[in-house]
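User: What would this chain look like folded?
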Amino acid sequence: MSPAISIPALFILILTLLLSPRASAQTFTSCNPLNTTTCPSNPALSTNHTFNLLTSSFSDSAWNATAGTLTYPPTGADFTIATRGDAPTIQSKFYLFGGECEVWLRAAPGQGVVSSIVLQSDDLDEVDWELVGGNNTHVQSNYFGKGNTTSYDRALWHPVADPQKDFHNYTTRWTHEQLEWFIDGAPVRTLKYGDANGGKNFPQTPMNVRIGVWAAGDKDNNNYTVEWAGGKTDYGKGPYTMSVSSVRVRDFSSGKEYSYGDTSGSWESIKIAPGNSTISDELNKPPPMTASQRWNHLSQGAKVGVGSAVGASCVLMVLLAAVYCVRQRRAGRRERALADGRFESETRELMEYRAKMAKGGFAISSREV
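Assistant: Here's the prediction, encoded as structure tokens.
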């Protein structure tokens, strides 16, 4: 027989489960397809793409920055809590319908500070990585289905060395059959569809990607959230920075966009619109060609034409330069002749003056004094 649980202890346990934080306080939805069929469609990624943040920034065509700004030092993208209220987050404009999300991340340190990698759908299916700033030995994986928070027994903790000091690879792989979590390429957790309340709590609808850092230990949060985060956040000891060096995303489906066919929230109800993903087209658009690349792409006839035009331009420039030089030389000779004339005139006047001086022509008499 199991030991009895007192009424106060049972009440505290239930209250803890009900008020414990969700995996991320930054999750939300602007239109829930469980309540209406008029929600806007989800733009599909429909490709595999890597955002290398060591050499570039998050593309504006694919991401929105919310609740703060990012900086880009040589180590990648920095998400920093500098003052109370900061919660810098990047959210993808694209959605995955099955896929992979791989993030190289160094967690923010600090008591009560939580670094998050979240996949979330409009109907609040959710898959999480949570890295608590005061825990330097473990990170947390979690999931939710349709915003169901009736229980908080889904979170698991996984060992990892110095997540606030070193970059680690956190990957989620998601199909309609199962969810997998990996750390540095090694599998640490697998969730089968049927094991999530018979599939009812299994994340299965198109999800976007959200990466950010937030102060779960803020004094305005409830005690259970603060306790889960390791204690209250001391902003005076900040700033607290999470760094991301790379994000790779892969959509297992293909099409232009995803929409909900009804309000069931099942993956079978999702409609895939045919066509090209505008975000995929933008991400895969080739960079502008260099001058040498543009030259190499010209036909032989075009190259001959360009060469002839350049040659003619060079000849014309030489002729114009020659004419200019001749004119300048002529103008110079005229100016020299005028200068020589002035010099000869001034020399004659000087010689006449000296001659008169020698003859006393400019002597001053005593009468004039």
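The CA atoms of residues 145 and 200 lie 7 Å apart. If you want, I can go into more detail on any region.
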